[in-house]
Amino acid sequence: MKQQCxxxxxxxxxxxxxxxxxxxxxxxxxxxxxxxxLSGSPLVKERTxxxxxxxxxxxxxxxxxxxxxxxxxxxxxxxxxVPLGHEKRQHLSDPFFMAMLGALADALTENxxxxxxxxxxxxxxxxxxxxxxxxxxxxxxxxxxxxxxDAIERVAQRYRxxxxxxxxxxxxxxxxVGTDNLAGGxxxxxxxxxxxxxxxxxxxxxxxxxxxxxxxxxxxxxxAYGLAAPIQLKAHLASDIMxxxxxxxxxxxxxxxxxxxxxxxxxxxxxxxxxxDRAIDVPARVRVIGYDDLPxxxxxxxxxxxxxxxxxxxxxxxxxxxxRRIADEDTPSLELPPKLVVxxxx
Length: 346
Hints:
There is one protein chain. The strands form four sheets. A six-stranded parallel sheet has the order 4-3-5-6-7-13. A four-stranded parallel sheet has the order 9-8-10-11, sandwiched between helices. It is 40% helix and 16% strand. It is an alpha/beta fold.
């Protein structure tokens, strides 16, 4: 092995070794022995292992982690996928996505895995098959089911390391972790009604199963109190059009409602701003409640009442279920309880 002089020309230092074959030649053993020694195999004698490890440090040898993972049929990478079938203009900068991504990243890196993040517009029927069959991932976490339940169910029939954040529905075959959205919708609407609201609106597009369940819960609460079902005010979650849509919908109905159940905190925040622009007092004239309990909910004026989803707990439950599935264990879906958080807007 070639040597090189230090700047003073007084001593010689070994050139860095870059392959297992080069290290094996220096150690006087086979490449297989070096590979087993570096992986801690009990087939290598302790004295030989220590000798090889010492040479690896001396020659600054860094094993090719990707090659090692491929030999073990593991990539060390988990795909985190955000499917946007119903909200094609929604961005990853959405505060809910950012909160969930941060919690998932923390849990995955603690388990020694890297993340491959994908924002997917499902433009073909096999978009999820192409992800799981890429050979690049040990498993997939979906943030939301969007309107892609059929695709997720189809893939889950044969691909076990798949866990979604979203609705837990009867008869569903894929593993999901999420809040009981039906109960959350009931809590939200029931709270506004108990505070005196009698003419409710539900603000949000209801094609995604989670938001549909929130709407159904709000309708159930209204029916339980003998009130009419909330008026649905359609508004999308894409930030570049959300404000205009909320302004238009509320502008059309502001005089006919005294309570707004918003599908998300961001929609609720936009509703409060629109009402303020129209000099409609919140909560004296219209009571507003959101859904998620993002950190921003305490920064609005007035501070936002909302339904809390435990995002950190949910993310850790998703990662735990995923790794158990990678280990070929069975993991049932998990539905977390929602919590009513009362602040100034209601």
